[in-house]
Amino acid sequence: MKIAFIGMGNMGEAIISAVLRQGVAAPGEITGSDIKPERREYISQQYGVKAYSTATEAISGADLVVVACKPQDVATTTGEFAGQLTPDQAAISTLAGTRIPTSPECLTPDRIA
User: Fold this and answer.
1) Mind giving me the DSSP string for 20-77?
2) DSSP letter assigned to residue 111
3) Does 27 score more than 80 pLDDT?
4) 94 exposure class (CB count in 10 Å sphere: 0-12, 13-18, 19+)
């Protein structure tokens, strides 16, 4: 299973670590993006995953997209890959109490878990 993480801060890192530790996916099957270059570099070196500067690059070919960015960044971040999720891709959010914008251009309700 190919998994993309949009946001690789503490929450994203915790999930990446657990996914790798439990053997859900291998490092080569995980991609991610983060707005901070130093965070991308750290996660890439620490876990052997591919880190990109944009969400668009990270989600390419992913089966599952995990939105783990900060609540104040969700609209901008999901807007980066607006309309680019395919019917075969699912998205989940770790953002408690925050609604992911739902529109045909962004994420449709049938792709949000």
Assistant:
1) HHTTSS-GGGEEEE-S-HHHHHHHHHHH--EEESSHHHHHTT-SEEEE-S-GGGHHHH
2) G
3) yes
4) middle
How many alpha carbons lie under 13 Å from residue 16 in its C-beta half-sphere? 30
Give phi and psi for 33, each to the nearest 5.
-140, 155
| 30 DSSP β-pair partners | 3
**Strands 64-67 and 50-52, how do they pair?**
unpaired
Over residues 35-73, the pLDDT tens digits come to 999 999 999 999 999 999 999 999 999 999 999 988 777
CA distance 90 to 104: 15
Cα–Cα distance measured from residue 61 to residue 15, given in angstroms and rounded to the nearest whole number:
19
What does residue 108 show for φ and ψ, rounded to 5 degrees?
A: -90, 150
CA quadruple 42, 73, 68, 95: dihedral positive or negative? positive
